[in-house]
Amino acid sequence: MSLSLSRCEKTRSNRIPAVGQTNSIGMFYMDSKELAKFARRKLLEMVYRARAAHVASSLSVVDILAVLYAENLSDEFGDSSPPSVILSKGHAAAALYSVLAGVGVIPISWLEDYCADGAQLTGHVTAGIPGVDFSTGSLGHGLPFGLGVALARKLSGDNRRVFVVMSDGELNEGTTWESALQASQFSLSNLVVLIDRNGLQSLDSTENTLALEPIDKKWRSFGWDTYQVDGHNHEAMGEQLMKRRESQSPQVIICSTVKGKGVSFMEDSVLWHYRSPNESEFREAIRELSVE
Amino acid sequence: MREIFIDELVQLSRQETNLFLCVGDLGFGVIEPFAEEFPERFINAGVAEQSMSSLAAGLASEGNTVFTYSIANFPTFRALEQIRNDIAYHRFNVVIVAVGAGVAYGSLGYSHHAIEDLAVMRAIPGIGIYSPSNERELRASMRRILREGGPAYLRLGKATHTPSTEHEETDITLPRHLRGLGEKLVLTTGEICDNVLAAVAELPKSISEQLSVFSVPYLGYDALFSFLIRRNPDLVITIEEHRRSGGLGSLLLEIVSDSGIPARVERLGFPEVTRYKIGSRDFILGQVGLHPQGISSKIEALFV
Predict the structure, then answer these.
(1) Closest Cα to residue B192, out of B96, B260, B291, B109?
(2) Interface test with A, best of B40, B51, B62, B91 (most A CBs within 10 A)
(3) How confident is the model at residue B49 (pLDDT cuts 50, 70, 90)?
(4) Which of A184, A235, B28, B86 makes an SS bond possible with B57, Cβ 3.0 to 4.6 Å?
(5) Of A145, A174, A182, the CB nearest to B45
(6) pLDDT score, position A6
(7) What is residue B102's predicted lDDT score, i.e. its pLDDT?
(8) CB distance A175–B54 less than 8 Å?
(9) Contact A148 B59 (CB under 8 A)
(10) 8 Å CB contact of B90 and A178
(11) A108 has a pLDDT exceeding 80
(12) DSSP character for A260?
C-alpha cells in the first residue's frame, strides 16, 4: 500500500507527469512510491548531466521527501498548501528538486539545467525556488531556522508543522544540540526533525568519524519524542507522521537509510558521496532504477 | 545606551505587534521592562548565539522583526555564518544588537572587546550599520531600521550619554554636525565622540578653526559618498573605537579613492595588537591614544 492523498482539488492525476509537462496551479495527486521512483530516475539524470556530486546523499533521502510531499500532512488542518519542509542537508538538492518537480511545484524542464551556468536550480537548495523558503548548504542551519519558524507559528496559533530533514553527519554540528535544548524548552510540538540516518559521512562512516550512537537516547535525553523507522518504508514513515499527538515535546524520527539507495553499486559507499557517475555507471544505474 | 534601547523597543512594541527580542542569556537588569510587558515576544535562547541567530531568521521569515541581543563580539563573531547566510542573504528583518562596543567592557579583557565588529559587518552586503553616539541618534536609528526593513547591525556603547548637541533630528543616515565650520573633516562614530569633542576643545584655535567635526551614526557608503563630494575636503580625520582597518576609516578611504577627491585620510583607532594593558575603558583608550589628549596630539601633529 502506498500513501497517496489529494492535496490539490484542482488537479487530480495519478500519472507521473510527462517530461515537459508543468503544473502552474497546484500540486499533482501523487502516489509516494511512484514519486520516489520518478525522483530517483530524475535525480540520476540531473547529477549525471551536471557531473554533480552528492548523488548517494540524494538517493538516501528520496523516500523521506516523497512521503512528506505525497502525504497530505497539511490536510489534517484543512490547509491545502505544501508542507513546510526545510532540507537542512541542502547538498541533497537534486532529491528535493526532483520531488518538487514530481508534485508540480517546479517545472520539470528546470531539472535539465541543474547546476548549469545561470540555472534556476543550484547545487544546494536556494530560497526563491518555489517550495524552498530557506537556502541551506552549510550544515547546522536548517534546524535552528526551522525552530524559529515553529516558534513563530506556535506563538501566533498557526497549527502547521515544520519538518526539518537533516543528515546524520550533520549531528556533528553544535547548533543541532543548541536547538535540541531550545525546542524542548519552548515545547515546540509542531517541530518535526527527520534524520536521514545512512551511517556515512564524507570521509568515513559516522561511527568512525564522531560516533553518534546511541542517537535515540541522545535525543530522548534532550526531551524529544523519539522514534525510529525504516527510512525506505513509506507506510511506516507515513504512519508515524500522521499520528495524532498530545505531547508538548518536539518530535524526531530517526530514519534508517542506505546511502545511495536504489543503485546497487552506489549503496553504502563513501566514494559515492562526491563521485559523479560516468556514462556506463549512469546507464547501469538507470537500468536498475527502471526495473520494478 | 542599552536602557534607552530597551525603552525605545518597548515604545515601538506598543505600536508594532510583531517585534521580538531574542537574547543570548544576557541583559540582567536591562531587559526586564520589555520581558515583563511582552513576555510572549521575549526569547532567551540561552548561551547559544549561532542557533539564536538562525532562530531569529526563522522567526523573521514568518513576518516578524527580530532583535538579537548580546554583548561585545558574541552577537556577531560567534554567529557570523548565520548572519551572512541566514539573515543577510535572505534579507530578513533581523536587527543584531551588540552592547558594549569598543572597549566598554574594558576590564573584562580581550574576549569582551569589540574592535573589529564594524570591519566584519561591513564585509557582508545587505546589513545597515548603525553606530549611534547618544540617545537621540539611537532612537532615530531604531526608527529608521524599522522603516527600512531588512537586516541591520546596531552597535551600542554601554553607558548613557547626554546628547552631544541639541540639534533637531535630521536624516540619521547623514553625518551629524557637532562643531566647527572648517573645511577639514573630523569624522567619528559612537561613544568615542565625547573624547573627540574634548580633544578638539583642547586644540589651539589656529587648528580647530580649520576643522568641522561630525558624528557618523550610519556607516553607509552612498550617504557618505554624497556627503564627501559636497564637502570636498583635502583632509579627513576619522576616529573610532575600533581597529584602524576595516571600520569607519577604511570606509572613508574607499570613498575618497572611488570619488577621486584628492583628500588625505588619517585614521585614528586601535593599533594592530592583541595584548595591551587591561583596565577600565578610559584606561585602555589612554593606552592606545584614544583619550582626548591622545587624539588632540595626533591631530596637532598633522598640522606641523
Answers:
(1) B291
(2) B51
(3) very high
(4) B86
(5) A182
(6) 31
(7) 97
(8) yes
(9) yes
(10) no
(11) yes
(12) T
Q: Give a three-class secondary structure readout of chain B.
A: CHHHHHHHHHHHHHHCCCEEEEECCCCCCCCHHHHHHCHHHEEECCCCHHHHHHHHHHHHHCCCEEEEEEECCCCCHHHHHHHHHHHHCCCCCEEEEEECCECCCHHHCHHHCECCHHHHHHCCCCCEEECCCCHHHHHHHHHHHHHHCCCEEEEECCCCCCCCCCCCCCCCCCCEEEECCCCEEEEECHHHHHHHHHHHHHCCHHHHCCEEEEECCECCHHHHHHHHHHHCCCEEEEEEEEECCCCHHHHHHHHHHHHCCCCEEEEEEECCCCCCCCCCHHHHHHHCCCCHHHHHHHHHHCCC
Residues 6+ apart with CB under 8 A from B101: B114, B117, B131, B155, B156, B157, B158, B190, B191, B241
The pLDDT tens digits of the residues spanning B294-303 come to: 999 999 999 9
Buried residues in B96-134 as b, exposed as e (16+ CB within 10 A)? bbbbbbbbbbbeeeeebbbbbbbbbbbebeebbbbbbbb
- C-alpha radius of gyration, chain A, whole number: 18
Pure H helices in chain A = 32-50, 55-70, 93-102, 142-156, 174-185, 206-209, 215-221, 234-242, 271-274, 279-290
- The interface residues of chain B toward chain A in range 160-189, judged by CB-CB distance below 8 A, are none
Indicate the range of A154-163, B75-84, B147-156 predicted with least confidence. A154-163
* Predicted local confidence at residue A31, as pLDDT: 83
Chain B residues whose CB is inside 8 A of the A146 CB are 58
**CA quadruple A254, A259, A262, A263: dihedral, nearest 10:** -170
Stated pTM of the model: 0.93
Whole-angstrom Cα distance, residue A192 to residue A71? 15
> Does residue A161 belong to the interface with chain B, where contact is any CB pair within 8 Å?
no
Please give the mean pLDDT across all residues of chain A.
87
The alpha carbon of residue B77 is apart from the nearest alpha carbon of chain A, in Å, by 15
Q: Cβ-count burial of B200 within 10 angstroms (0-12 exposed, 13-18 middle, 19+ buried)?
A: buried
Euclidean distance between CA atoms B243 and B249, whole angstroms: 9
- Name every chain A residue with its beta carbon within 8 A of the beta carbon of B45: 178, 182
Mean pLDDT on B197-225: 97
Q: For chain B, what is the mean pLDDT?
A: 95
Cα distances from A45 to residues A91, A267, B109, B138, in angstroms, run: 16, 17, 56, 55
According to DSSP, residue A17 is labeled P
pLDDT per position as a tens digit, A88-97: 999 999 999 9
Task: Using pLDDT thresholds of 50, 70 and 90, give the confidence band for residue B40.
Answer: very high
Taking the Cβ of residue A155 and every Cβ of chain B, the question of whether any pair is shorter than 8 Å is answered with yes
Beta bridge partners of A167: A196
Give the residue from A164, A29, A169 showing the smallest Cα distance to A103.
A29
Q: Kindly report, residue by residue over A162-182, the tens digit of the pLDDT.
A: 999 999 999 999 999 999 999
